[in-house]
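Hi W., the glutamine complex you wanted:
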Amino acid sequence: MAKENDLLASVSDTSTDSEFFSPVPEGYKKGRTRYIFVLGTVISGLGKGIFSSCLAKLMQDKGLKVAPIKLEGYLNIDSGTLNPFRHGEVFVLDDGMECDMDLGTYERMLNKKLSRDNFVTSGQVFKSVLYKERHGDYLGRDVQMIPHVTGEVKLKLRNLAMKTKADIVFIEIGGTVGDLENAYYIEAMRQLAYEEGPNSCCFVALTYILEPETLGEQKSKAAQLGIKQLMQCGIQPHIIACRATNPVNEKARQKISIYSSVPMERVLSLPDSASVYMIPSMLRDANLDFQVLKLLKIEDRINLRNERKEWAKWCDFTDKIEADRKKITIGITGKYTSVRDSYASIINALEHAGIALGADIDIKWVPTGEINAENVSENLADVDGIIVPGGFGTRGAEGKIQCTKYARENNLPFLGLCFGFQMAVIEFARNVCGLKDANTTEINGDCKEPVIGILPEQKKIEGLGGNMRLGGRDIKLKQDTIAWELFGKAETVRMRFRHRYEVDPIYIETLEKGGLVFSGKAPEHPIMQILELPDHPFFIGTQAHPCLTSRPLSPQPMFVGLVASAMKKRYPEKKLPGPVDAVKKV
Ligand code: GLN
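Structure:
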């Protein structure tokens, strides 16, 4: 053992001058943490994050400490400035980090709060290398991709391992093998595996098996080439997960196996699944969890009793997915309605609430750019409830206001999120309080009644990166309101935020006189966080993004309330719990 440690020590060095340069956090103990790398080949969008989070869940169930990390190739410092249409939704962590939607997958699957340590972009890596260069940390040396940039990547991974005391760090590399952007991440991984020594790292390659309709059979060539490309980077995969529309046949798996020297029991068939929450059991059925434990030689660390308990809970949940559920339709009114990924957390939160209440939810996308006073009723006639989601800018805003008005006047269950909350305030101000010119200064800076205006703390900020009111904040609930009941009569609740505008405090009195109830406020400032209409079956809005904290086994109460109300509307003859009872039941 001592000899092996010496060998490991000999290939990593903290001197910036050495070709073995590999900074290691102080107190780091090699061998304590194992690393699982998840890479994609052939195409992107294979579900690396889903795969990685499901495998991590199986390990966590076994009592192991897991820490996921996503490495993004792009040069942005975070995902905050990315268009959700191009890149999927921006997921906000409790500490305010704006990151990739995969972090949401990890939080939901692991039922765990993550932090900025779990998200890395090339922008962050280079920023810190360049900072160190200016600071004189590499004095006398030309700063190179290898060993300095790769060293920075390894440092981030080991820092996470140290900080979380993880048994396993799960590393997901964005993009596919062969991209210029992530090549240095892959190189850093190869080095890390070398430095950490045998049985410390496990490489998983996700690949795609084509099945062209004209041929009617599965073709593995593209997958073989993708894996070959990975092997050319000096990485021998231990596990190959074959994604495909249908179960991957024996012949295709054999080809992959012989081509890549990965034994058949580690070449998995991973066909499309109706729900991501069924994937942990697919991996379990393939015995992948135990294969990984064996590869990493950590079988002795697991707690099978814990696993039995956790797995029983999970199966109760997945049984409900497969149960006969009642159909309802929820409309989502928004700008990015053509891309489901832009609303990933909302879709997930609806799914969680639906599963808990026995509702099978169809989503109707309502493109608000085309909605006006004349056509709103025909567009919303067949929905049982609506969500007006977050958004920025002018496009579609008037359509959202029309949808909100329709929901208010027609007793249609309504949930407004962030921008949707602001639209509800504007609609109420215009049509109930008689402030005809009410608007947000985000849309019309010169409007006569700016009921929504910029937050005072935002006024002095310049530029657009990472400087909104971001992250988790406490909300003080008002007693005897729907929100208070929904949250189990809690005094305060915590939700996540991402906004620049708020209800202008000078309008609060007018709005309240009109009958709007602000049932949640920021504890120390007059920032309105939740609104509701007491005489409506379910009309509630929040300045926060409650979808970000909904979890499969603990659905978010506002979503539960919406779905329960929608169920009641659709099936009035059935004895179903009201929104508040529904949450209590959950
Ligand atoms: N554009 C609004 C604001 O900045 C709402 C933001 C959002 O919906 N995330 O306040």
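The radius of gyration is 26 Å.

W.
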